[in-house]
Amino acid sequence: MRLVMPGCITDIRVRPWLRVLTLTLFMALYLTSGALIFQQLEGQKGQPDDLRARQVQKYKHDFLRDHPCISADDLESLIEVVVRATNQGVPAAQNVSGGPNWSFGQSLFFSSTVITTIGYGHVTPLTKMGKLFCMLYAVLGIPLTLILLSALVERLLLPATALLRTMNAELGHLYRPFTIRLVHLSIIVTFLVVFFLVIPAAIFASLEPGWDYLDSFYYCFISLTTIGLGDYIPGDSPGQEYRPLYKVATTFFLLAGLTFLMLTLTVFYDIPQLNLSTVFSSVKLDEDPEKMRLSGSGVMGPGYGIGGLVMRDDYNHHDQRRSVVHIRPHLDDSPSPEDTTPVHARDMRVPHVH
């Protein structure tokens, strides 16, 4: 019989809260430091807001002085029209000959930014019915998008798991399984960076007249991470040909990039040594029957589950059914070269009694 001291139980219950508190303090420090750095880097070379406001007023005063035939009220009206047009996604500096702002291609692009939660904000519905429909459209579209992306990730996990199986078979006798998993993750990350950041950034830099390569790379990163600041929007430069078609192609790029990003995160979180979320969890996955049931539903494909835990029935090469019984692993537990089950989902297989 194992005796447990009451003080030990209290310590076990308090420790996760201390970790969460530490993480909260770290995030507060992270946000504060980020705000200070952005303030220094983007503070218009150290000029305060009131100084910039005085510069704008001086420019307006000089403009009215040089153009006495224009009244101050007319100038203010013109500025309001320009600002309103800019907020609607129409560049007022010069005419855009690529088509209307709400063409089918651009409307499709806007719809994709809504359901993927990117939300650039450069184009927004202005009518009451448009705003109402946008909310209803997002309520239904966002869950459907998550389901679609999860289904696509499940399909992409098949070749990813096959690659891991091959690497285990070829390198399992030379390297530790954790090292093999890091190499596998590095391959996935490299594919993501090259085909969804580096190459698309070069394409955008060649198509957008006002973008350099850094601007294009910045746009791809901000979009695929669903931050969506909206400071760079493809296809909004004046005189661009096939503008609606360009918007449609960008829409498919965003959906494909988000899918592969989710695949990368799934592979990353499946490595227990890298999944820091378990450190701050007060209830372990194998201690919660409901989470174990959900993680074994096979949503994320073979060998992968929600949180990396998989419980399933397996089959050997003789088609003999075997039951899978999960046990808690150690950090050094790892699959054999023939076993591609995730490291932290190692199980003990017991023959099923018929």
Q: How would you describe this structure in keywords?
A:
354 residues, mainly alpha, 3-stranded antiparallel sheet, 9 helices, globular, disordered C terminus
Average predicted confidence as pLDDT: 76
Principal-axis shape equals globular
Q: Rg from C-alpha positions?
A: 27 Å
Q: How many strand segments?
A: 3
- Ranges where pLDDT stays below 50 over 5 or more residues in a row are 294-338, 340-354
* Most strands sheet: 3 strands, antiparallel
Alpha-carbon distance between the termini? 34 Å
* Portion in helices: 55-70%
How are the strands of the biggest sheet laid out side by side?
A: 1-2-3
Order of helices and strands: HHHHHHHHHEEE
Percent range for β-strand residues: under 5%
Number of helices: 9
Which structural category fits the helices and strands? mainly alpha
Task: Describe what you observe in this structure.
This protein is mainly alpha-helical and 354 residues long. A three-stranded antiparallel β-sheet has the order 1-2-3, with no helix packed on it. The two termini are 34 Å apart. The C terminus is likely disordered.
Chart the SSEs and their pairings.
Blueprint: H1 6-41, H2 49-66, H3 72-87, H4 104-115, H5 128-171, H6 177-207, H7 213-224, H8 243-269, H9 289-295, E1 314-315, E2 321-326, E3 347-351
Antiparallel strand pairs: 1-2, 2-3
Helix pairs in contact: 4-8, 5-6, 5-8, 6-7, 6-8
